Amino acid sequence: MSPSKAPSMDFETFYNIIDGKPRSSKAIHHGVNPATGQELWDVPIATEKDLNDAVAAAKKAFPAWRDTPIEKRKELLMKFVDMYNTYIEEFTTLLCKETGKPRKFAGIEVGAVGAFIGYHCTLKIPEEKFEDDEKTVYTEYTPLGVCGGIVPWNFPLILSVGKIAPALLTGNCIVIKPSPFTPYTSLKLIELAQQILPPGVVQAVGGNNELGALLTAHPDVAKISFTGSIATGKKVMEVSAKTLKRVTLELGGNDASIVLPDVDIKKVAPEVAMGAFQNSGQVCVATKRIYIHESIYREFLQEMVNFTKSIRVGSPDDSDNLLGPIQNAMQYEKVKGFFADSKAKGYKFAAGDPDIAASKGFFIQPTIIDNPPNDSRIIVEEPFGPIVPTQPWSDLDEVIARANDTKTGLGACVWGKDVEEAAKIARRLEAGSVFVNSWEKPTPQAIFGGHKESGIGGEWGTTGLLAFMNAHVIHVYKS
């Protein structure tokens, strides 16, 4: 379908998408624009019947989709990208309203959707062949069936697509449950997909935690792909165990950045700060702890402070802003708790104010806490907001141990001029993705997942395709 023939879309009315059709509900909820505090559009809350209908439709659609040649599946996915790309402006505006992101950063997320699907469409499903005098053994991979995707509120579009692209490419059908805080872009994305994809292949049911629990417990759902908190991830795994569902859990992190003494301070300090404050710190792989070599600690911290004080925070409507608000009231209160704790314990605020100014939206200025103790809440817990601690270090083995001294292991960073040395340190860090001389920037080209309590398994990249498949080994003996 050429972009000029794209259907007209209403970006102010929202439905659940079940078996290729929009569906309303008696019960409704709505998001809140975090920059203004104003209520956004009504969204239907899916019932248990809606969910059951969606799973039944996916189960019915699965055999034909599984048997569609992969090149044809790729062709349909790329047709969808062409159509989606005609609505970039509308999706960007919608994402700004539901998340509060500055327009530039909302635009990056919206643009990444096509790139993410496009990259996945270059991949091949792995297969292996082993042969000896007696037999040939073929290791092939087959799709699981009906998958469920539970998506968080911090990157609602790209994290939906991060589940949809590999699931559909590998021949599965998927039911997406968007976050009730940010349902709008996901629902529109999946509504648009019905113009291209067969009914039941990709569907959306919106609702609260109870709906997520029903999806996880459903006996006809073969896999749950969940992105969210560690506490909820543990519940997903517990419920999934009852049907031995496949699960991928991408959970919270407490990422450490280690800054070596040879860095270019003026160049690197703002980058390290960006790693902590990107998307107002609402990133599972944002930098949460910064360890700076003692010989440059004061100078490096000062450069971070200078950059942090220059960061503009505000509404998406103002194009100069680098950061927007915290996305929802619940998270806003949680982040404020870290400020209150740090103030009560007398920690030094190198940048930012312990007393958060009242505003219509959920705005918090980026804040650096200078050298709090190892057992402080700001070191031990994940704030998921724009507040980060720094600490000096002198002994490399000791700082690596400090970085690894956490129940989580999602991401980490090492900064240094000697790239080989930095890469050696990176290999000693217990995290799923370690970045050398960059803040955390996961890409679809590599599997993304965590160590320890940061999750189970991973998705994206060629390896990540296997998370949506079962190994199917055919042993052929020669007669």
Total count of domains: 2
Would you count the extended β strands for me? Answer: 22
Report the average pLDDT across residues.
96
CATH class of the largest domain: Alpha Beta
Short descriptors:
alpha/beta, Aldehyde Dehydrogenase, Chain A, domain 2, 37% helix, 479 residues, 22 strands, 15 helices, 6-stranded mixed sheet, 7-stranded mixed sheet, Aldehyde Dehydrogenase, Chain A, domain 1, 2 domains
Give a description of the structure.
GO terms for molecular function: aldehyde dehydrogenase (NAD+) activity. Residues 29-472 form the Aldehyde dehydrogenase domain. InterPro entries: Ald_DH/histidinol_DH (IPR016161), Ald_DH_C (IPR016163), Ald_DH_CS_CYS (IPR016160), Ald_DH_CS_GLU (IPR029510), Ald_DH_N (IPR016162), Aldehyde_DH_dom (IPR015590), LUC3-like (IPR044086). Pfam families: Aldedh (PF00171). The active site is at residue 250. The protein has 2 domains: 3-251 and 454-475, Aldehyde Dehydrogenase, Chain A, domain 1; 255-444, Aldehyde Dehydrogenase, Chain A, domain 2 (3-Layer(aba) Sandwich), CATH 3.40.309. It has helices at residues 48-67, 70-84, 88-99, 103-120, 156-169, 184-193, 209-217, 230-241, 265-277, 297-310, 329-344, 377-380, 396-404, 419-426, 461-465, and strands at 16-18, 21-23, 28-32, 39-44, 128-131, 135-143, 146-150, 173-177, 202-204, 223-227, 246-250, 255-259, 287-293, 348-351, 367-370, 387-393, 408-409, 411-415, 433-436, 451-452, 455-456, 469-477. Helix 9 crosses helix 10 (297-310). The protein is built from 15 helices and 22 strands. The chain is 37% helix and 22% strand. A 7-stranded mixed sheet has the order 14-15-16-13-12-18-19, with helices on both faces. The relative contact order is 0.14. With 479 residues, it is an alpha/beta fold. The model has no long low-confidence stretch (mean pLDDT 96).
